[in-house]
């Protein structure tokens, strides 16, 4: 039996279990993982909320927003923080610390320190507080629903900004591209983040900073949010990984960083890739147990998606035994399993490799995935949006097979993706771009794959 996967917070030295109960995870405490309820919760007379994987359902009028969901508009004005300042720097102008005694300012001062705080404008301080207060919840999918700010989350979200200007800048950029109130400043801050990350990769000091690769991961999320190329940033992160860990015995830190890169590098989950695949998951992450945190997919299934060119990959996907979980979650994983087989076949055909459709024709798989997805929607309460981010990959995978889709099926796929975009793809560049690629393929003669169309349109899209 393999040990539970762990996640070591950079620089903090604190190891957190990824498989502990939800109560301990929300409290940022080590869990002994006794089932059905852990001993830690029992000793403190707390309700142990169990170990099952949780879905992030979005209630009507309150979209479940993740790292891609940013309403963006054309810039209308310069940022209220803009002064004459070095390109890529988050600083604006010095402030007199004695003049800032509000509760928000004191929280920021406590966690990012005077030096970082003094470089922020009032606008940026408000943005950073919002990032730690609620924006980061969407990024890391924190399970707890809080009625008051959680000091532990504030510390974990902000403490790294104290020692990393790049992480501070990218935290600001993430929140600005996420919050529609600041959409007119998104282009400016996005440009700063790209410039700063490139400078960090060429700066010997910044290259070695602990937080530089994690700031790069955040930049990948921001880029996907904006339907902009992101794998070039992963190449930079991978170069940091190899320089630090290539000759070392695997550690918690190296495994964590490899998993982050590997999950965002899956061949099955990227359309129109503009750089070569790194195959980080296959090289460094196979054999892990549990559920991968970025995708919500079992690691054992990601092991298969990371190896689309293996000769026996179709048989291995078909024999995947599944993962224990709640019924709705297991059905979602089943849809992901079959959708992954569709994507693997597309990848193999593009490489001139054989596929085996004798026992399981692609058309039959498409209909099965659509049936699973329709059933998942029907089973949910009518007051709940019948969508999760994990639905996105199966919807796009079956949408990439137009020869097997009826007009009704295309409408179902279109409506599902539109719902993920909070019923307005025009406000969400990422979903709008994916739908645009699908519509082009559906209107075509069937000779071009979805990946080919994305490449022709100059789009690089992650199906997360």
TrEMBL record:
<feature type="domain" description="Zn(2)-C6 fungal-type">
    <location>
        <begin position="20"/>
        <end position="48"/>
    </location>
</feature>
<dbReference type="Pfam" id="PF00172">
    <property type="entry name" value="Zn_clus"/>
</dbReference>
<keyword id="KW-0539">Nucleus</keyword>
<dbReference type="InterPro" id="IPR036864">
    <property type="entry name" value="Zn2-C6_fun-type_DNA-bd_sf"/>
</dbReference>
<protein>
    <recommendedName>
        <fullName>Zn(2)-C6 fungal-type domain-containing protein</fullName>
    </recommendedName>
</protein>
<dbReference type="GO" id="GO:0008270">
    <property type="term" value="F:zinc ion binding"/>
</dbReference>
<dbReference type="GO" id="GO:0000981">
    <property type="term" value="F:DNA-binding transcription factor activity, RNA polymerase II-specific"/>
</dbReference>
<dbReference type="InterPro" id="IPR001138">
    <property type="entry name" value="Zn2Cys6_DnaBD"/>
</dbReference>
């Amino acid at each position: 039996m393999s040990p539970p996967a762990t996640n070591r917070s950079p620089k903090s030295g604190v190891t957190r279990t990824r498989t502990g109960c939800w109560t301990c995870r929300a409290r940022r405490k080590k869990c002994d993982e006794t089932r059905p309820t852990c001993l830690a919760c029992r000793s403190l007379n707390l309700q142990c909320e169990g170990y099952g994987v949780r879905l992030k359902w979005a209630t009507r009028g309150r979209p479940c927003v993740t790292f891609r969901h940013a309403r963006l508009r054309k810039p209308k004005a310069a940022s209220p923080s803009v002064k004459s300042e070095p390109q890529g720097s988050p600083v604006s102008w010095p402030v007199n610390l004695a003049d800032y005694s509000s509760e928000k300012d004191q929280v920021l001062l406590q966690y990012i320190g005077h030096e970082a705080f003094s470089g922020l404008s009032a606008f940026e301080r408000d943005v950073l507080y919002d990032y730690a207060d609620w924006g980061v919840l969407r990024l890391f999918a924190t399970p707890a629903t809080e009625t008051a700010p959680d000091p532990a989350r504030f510390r974990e979200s902000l403490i790294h900004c104290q020692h990393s200007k790049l992480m501070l800048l990218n935290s600001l950029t993430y929140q600005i591209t996420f919050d529609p109130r600041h959409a007119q400043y998104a282009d400016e801050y996005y440009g700063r983040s790209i410039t700063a990350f490139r400078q960090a990769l060429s700066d010997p000091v910044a290259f070695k900073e602990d937080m530089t690769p994690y700031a790069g991961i955040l930049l990948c999320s921001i880029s996907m949010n904006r339907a902009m190329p992101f794998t070039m940033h992963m190449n930079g992160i991978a170069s940091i990984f190899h320089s630090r860990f290539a000759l070392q015995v695997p550690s918690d830190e190296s495994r964590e960083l490899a998993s982050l890169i590997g999950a965002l590098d899956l061949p099955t989950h990227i359309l129109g890739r503009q750089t070569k695949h790194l195959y980080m998951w296959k090289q460094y992450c196979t054999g892990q147990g549990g559920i991968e945190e970025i995708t919500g997919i079992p690691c054992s299934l990601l092991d298969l998606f990371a190896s689309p060119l293996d000769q026996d990959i179709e048989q291995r996907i078909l024999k995947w035994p599944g993962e224990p979980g709640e019924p709705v979650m297991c059905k979602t994983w089943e849809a992901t399993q079959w959708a992954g087989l569709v994507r693997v076949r597309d990848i193999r055909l593009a490489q001139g490799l054989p596929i085996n459709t004798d026992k399981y024709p692609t058309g039959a798989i498409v209909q099965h995935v659509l049936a699973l997805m329709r059933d998942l929607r029907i089973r949910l309460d009518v007051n709940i949006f019948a969508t999760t981010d994990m639905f996105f990959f199966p919807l796009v995978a079956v949408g990439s097979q137009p020869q097997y889709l009826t007009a009704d099926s295309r409408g179902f796929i279109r409506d599902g993706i539109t719902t993920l975009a909070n019923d307005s793809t025009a406000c969400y560049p990422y979903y709008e771009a994916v739908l645009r690629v699908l519509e082009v393929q559906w209107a075509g003669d069937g000779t071009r794959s979805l990946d080919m169309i994305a490449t022709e349109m100059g789009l690089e899209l992650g199906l997360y």
